[in-house]
Amino acid sequence: SPLVDQGFVSPQESQDVQNKKLSKKGNGKTKFEYEFCKSKFNYRTSLTAHKKINTGEKPFECEICKKKFSEKSNLHVHKIINTEGKPFECKLCDAKYMYRSSLRAHKMTHTGEKPFECSFCKTKFSDKSALTTHIRTHTG
């Protein structure tokens, strides 16, 4: 390194700095691996986000409706959506949605429709995220 060559830092100090950089970001060769499922990521933040998905951790809560999110950015989007209005209203209850597809998914709670089926045990769900959470009970 130029800093070592010029005598500003020792070879060990240079290596320590390089190791700290690698611990924050992969270098193309070094990847962050999640020991649970062996998924690999270039960035520590990507690994952290993935772990939250696997554990179901949702530390960010909307103070208005109490809905929880795994990422702060998702909570932020949720707040924007809630303050800018929801044009799609359920005619059977007070629920309102920003997207027509969200209203369609909500309507299944009234009709009892459950189109998402677990491939392991055939249990059915009305919403895909519930199925995803359920599948973790089979896969660990």
Strands, helices and their partners?
Blueprint: H1 2-5, H2 11-24, E1 32-33, E2 40-41, H3 44-55, E3 60-61, E4 68-69, H4 72-83, E5 88-89, E6 96-97, H5 100-111, E7 116-117, E8 124-125, H6 128-139
Antiparallel strand pairs: 1-2, 3-4, 5-6, 7-8
Organism: Clastoptera arizonana
Family: Belongs to the krueppel C2H2-type zinc-finger protein family.
InterPro entries: Znf_C2H2_sf, Znf_C2H2_type
Can you offer a commentary on this structure?
With 140 residues, the protein is mainly α. The protein has a domain of 55 residues: Double Stranded RNA Binding Domain (2-Layer Sandwich). It is 47% helix and 11% strand. The protein contains six helices and eight strands, in the order ααββαββαββαββα. A two-stranded antiparallel sheet has the order 1-2. The protein has a two-stranded antiparallel sheet with strand order 3-4. A two-stranded antiparallel sheet has the order 5-6. The longest helix is centred in the N-terminal third of the chain and has 14 residues. The N terminus is likely disordered.
